Amino acid sequence: MKQIFVTLFAVAVSVLLLLGLLLSHVYYAAPRTNPATVEVRVEQGDSLATVVGKLREQQVIMNERLFLLWARLRGVEKKIHRGLYRFEAQLAPHEILERLVMGKGVFHIATVPEGLTVKEIADLLDKLQIVERDKFLAEASDPEFLKLFGLEDKGIEGYLFPSTYHFTPATSEKDILIAMVSQFRKLFEPLLERGGERGRLTPHQIVTLASIIEKETGVEAERPLVSAVFHNRLKLNMPLQSDPTVIYGLKDFNGNLTRKDLNTPSPYNTYRIAALPPGPISNPGLSSIKAALHPADVPFLYFVSKNDGTHLFSESFAAHNRAVKTYQQSGERNPARRKAVALRE
């Protein structure tokens, strides 16, 4: 009996010593001697042992076996997040493990401005080295992906919400698109439920109108006024006569909108059709979406650039022509002048 007790006592002491060694390693281990900052990439499908091996190879940890044991005792073997992790000196093993479990890796910050097209967003993210442009565009037009959000007959243009995003280097093109569309739906659907002066416009047409408003003015206070002009024109079956829609429908636009362009047949040429184009021409921000849903209560049918970023709005054609003479005396050199001429014709 005494021998059994001694044996159990020895085992208990050994366990305590092992536990003490483990805890000492986890919480009080000396920092690695290499002062350089190193990066470790955790790929999709990497096992815990593989990740720990990478940490040891980069000298982020000193004892591979003890780190593995601690991770398994914590029950986090299947909870390591993929991504790129940056480790500096003075990090204890438990801090390293916490980063891996919490997914506190390196993030790319991407600010997507309002009014960009899908192609322009792809160019921006490619320049930031967050996506591969062609892969992003291919995923954005994939029927199976569009089906996830009920956009298979609409396309993704207009549904990528402009905002600041934080993506890890391991985030796929598809996951980035999902994040942007999900953010759009999160903000758009509650606005739609609260209603507004939609008239007979469908949700897709509201997004389309918002995208045009976004391209027509960068002044937030003007957006409900621009919205009112377009709502009023739609009610009267008047063409919207929006230059940005024409430009969107052109295959090759060199920055100079011509009379020929305005006369070129296209579903997006709102000088020739008295309706909204078939879909959005950009990805609008929240302000333009709100404006599309809540136009100002004004009778305006026209607006013309004042050449300072703002516009003058008019109810009558005669008042509009006077505004054109006042603000657009620079002739064909000014795109807004061309628009005013087209309206008169």
Task: Walk me through this protein's architecture.
There is one protein chain. With 345 residues, this protein is mainly alpha-helical. Helices cover 50% and strands 8% of the residues. It has three domains: 25-102, 2-Layer Sandwich (Dna Ligase, domain 1); 108-191, no CATH class; 197-344, no CATH class. The protein has helices spanning 2-28, 48-57, 64-74, 93-102, 118-127, 133-140, 143-148, 173-193, 203-216, 223-235, 243-249, 259-263, 286-293, 317-327, 335-344; strands at 38-42, 83-87, 108-111, 164-167, 302-305, 311-314. The protein has a two-stranded antiparallel ribbon. A two-stranded antiparallel ribbon has the order 3-4. Residues 331-345 have low confidence and may be disordered.
What is the spatial order of strands in the main beta sheet? Answer: 1-2
Output the radius of gyration: 30 Å
Mean pLDDT: 85
Strand coverage percent: 5-15%
Order of helices and strands: HEHHEHEHHHEHHHHHHEEHH
Report low-confidence residues grouped into runs of 5 or more. 331-345
Total number of domains: 3
Number of strands: 6
* Biggest beta sheet summary: 2 strands, antiparallel
- How far apart the termini lie comes to 110 Å
- Protein structure class: mainly alpha
- Shape label: elongated
**Oligomerization state:** single chain
The total count of helices amounts to 15
Fraction of residues in helix: 40-55%
Summed up:
This protein has 345 residues and is mainly alpha-helical. Helix content is 50%, strand content 8%. The chain has 15 helices and 6 strands.
